[in-house]
Amino acid sequence: MYCIKCGVELQEGAARCPLCGLKVYHPEIKETPAPGPYPRYTEEDLRVKRLFVPFVLTVIFLIPLVICLLVDLKLNGGIVWSGYVAFGLLTLWVTVCLPLFFRNRNPVIFFPIQGAAVLLLTLYICLKTGGHWFLSLSFPVGGALILIIETVIVLLRYVIPRGDYRILYVLGGAVTAVGLLCILIEFLIHVTFRVPMQWWCLYPVAVLGLLGLSMILTAVFPSLRSALHKKFFI
Question: Which 8-state DSSP code applies to residue 231?
Answer without folding.
Answer: H
